[in-house]
Write a structure and sequence with these properties.
The complex is a heterodimer. Helix content of chain A is about 0%, strand content about 55%. Chain A is mainly β. By secondary structure, chain B is mainly beta. In chain B, strand 6 and strand 7 form a beta hairpin. Classes of the chains: A mainly beta, B mainly beta.
Chain lengths: ~120, ~110
Amino acid sequence: ETGVTQTPRHLVMGMTNKKSLKCEQHLGHNAMYWYKQSAKKPLELMFVYNFKEQTENNSVPSRFSPECPNSSHLFLHLHTLQPEDSALYLCASSQDRTVGYNEQFFGPGTRLTVL
Amino acid sequence: DQQVKQNSPSLSVQEGRISILNCDYTNSMFDYFLWYKKYPAEGPTFLISISSIKDKNEDGRFTVFLNKSAKHLSLHIVPSQPGDSAVYFCAASLDNYGQNFVFGPGTRLSVLP
């Protein structure tokens, strides 16, 4: 596997379910991100992890719980979601730098539907 | 209120002609700008970037222009090819090693053969 992979690609869940999204990057990067893209809305940054430490949380509700056990893996644990949480969830990674731009490499996304 | 705007949801261009995708932003503190391209069922892929210290950056058929006073940037694709048909996102960051990018809503480009 190369690049950034995400599983599952599609997920349908009820509001009382608990599920997890998984992201894995094979690029040797040290920063990972979760984004949400709702219909007809821009990508919204949710969380940023640098060297496994969470460095950004953009006021995301606690029903979304990220986990980054190592620099290559990132999870998004979901519980008691709402129908308005239905969206495309994208994972990305980058090589954290203090100079030079921070090109992010995206996975294909998980299309989540909450019933 | 959106900080990064792409006011054209869609654009159709004839193959071989120039495609011009526009992006406007409201925060004058943005320091770095990127364009991403997204095909259906795939994640966005990086296309080209520009720092606020420049007004133009070119990479093959793709050129990005930045007008800081107007808070406007544009992506020119010339000549346009059918394979360029995709959704194009403009993104802006407050710093040149930006991790916190603000994305525009995207413009769907269709290049007609």
